[in-house]
């Protein structure tokens, strides 16, 4: 394993320990609202601190973009860690076991290393650029399905900024009509990993943040999948509008989505 990925895995496991300990006493967890339908708990913050400690000990000069504490030293290093301590916070504090720790490392703006760890299933997804994607050390690939009507599509509802809601619902209606079904599981990093290992065939969502998608996207790409924005272009990390799937599924999904833009 690449030494930087090793550090990412160590940090993700450390954070998961903090999270799973807290999950035993959810009644006592303090929850704050950042915006409408956007929450943070003291556990998000503690898990993020655990990650920062591990990364800073190994690489004190690297820059960091972390969901809860923001940007540290951006522009001062070629390396940037992109961190979501709990992706799926709303699930977490409801005791709904679908959330993950997501950590990516970019070098000169290109994501090179990725880990997404689901502590409830003990699923450790990892990828290094050019080396492949793995689930608990076994190589993973995107699904082989080619006809959209057999495909299961993951998505996320645009519940924080609801300005896209009508467009989104028109897309979802069409997706439901033309596929085997849709799933809204509530953690974008895991939605992407599920594309990578073929548990779903495709994924689309608007308005995500870099920490939701940086790690999962490399895992999809290294599993033979493609990640684009809603126009089939790059720029998804900046816009947060993202579509993912195998090359064949992605093309069909983009066609459906385009009809409603
Ligand atoms: C959220 C999850 C969810 C997505 C939201 C994200 P958070 O991340 O990834 O699936 O639909 O838009 O904000 O806030 O739980 O880290
Ligand atoms: Ca997130
Ligand atoms: Ca989060």
TrEMBL record:
<dbReference type="InterPro" id="IPR033942">
    <property type="entry name" value="IMPase"/>
</dbReference>
<comment type="similarity">
    <text>Belongs to the inositol monophosphatase superfamily.</text>
</comment>
<keyword id="KW-0479">Metal-binding</keyword>
<dbReference type="InterPro" id="IPR020550">
    <property type="entry name" value="Inositol_monophosphatase_CS"/>
</dbReference>
<dbReference type="InterPro" id="IPR000760">
    <property type="entry name" value="Inositol_monophosphatase-like"/>
</dbReference>
<keyword id="KW-0460">Magnesium</keyword>
<dbReference type="GO" id="GO:0046854">
    <property type="term" value="P:phosphatidylinositol phosphate biosynthetic process"/>
</dbReference>
<feature type="binding site">
    <location>
        <position position="67"/>
    </location>
    <ligand>
        <name>Mg(2+)</name>
    </ligand>
</feature>
<dbReference type="GO" id="GO:0006020">
    <property type="term" value="P:inositol metabolic process"/>
</dbReference>
<dbReference type="InterPro" id="IPR022337">
    <property type="entry name" value="Inositol_monophosphatase_SuhB"/>
</dbReference>
<dbReference type="GO" id="GO:0046872">
    <property type="term" value="F:metal ion binding"/>
</dbReference>
<feature type="binding site">
    <location>
        <position position="212"/>
    </location>
    <ligand>
        <name>Mg(2+)</name>
    </ligand>
</feature>
<keyword id="KW-0378">Hydrolase</keyword>
<dbReference type="GO" id="GO:0007165">
    <property type="term" value="P:signal transduction"/>
</dbReference>
<dbReference type="GO" id="GO:0008934">
    <property type="term" value="F:inositol monophosphate 1-phosphatase activity"/>
</dbReference>
<dbReference type="InterPro" id="IPR020583">
    <property type="entry name" value="Inositol_monoP_metal-BS"/>
</dbReference>
<feature type="binding site">
    <location>
        <position position="87"/>
    </location>
    <ligand>
        <name>Mg(2+)</name>
    </ligand>
</feature>
<feature type="binding site">
    <location>
        <position position="86"/>
    </location>
    <ligand>
        <name>Mg(2+)</name>
    </ligand>
</feature>
<protein>
    <recommendedName>
        <fullName>Inositol-1-monophosphatase</fullName>
        <ecNumber>3.1.3.25</ecNumber>
    </recommendedName>
</protein>
<feature type="binding site">
    <location>
        <position position="84"/>
    </location>
    <ligand>
        <name>Mg(2+)</name>
    </ligand>
</feature>
<dbReference type="Pfam" id="PF00459">
    <property type="entry name" value="Inositol_P"/>
</dbReference>
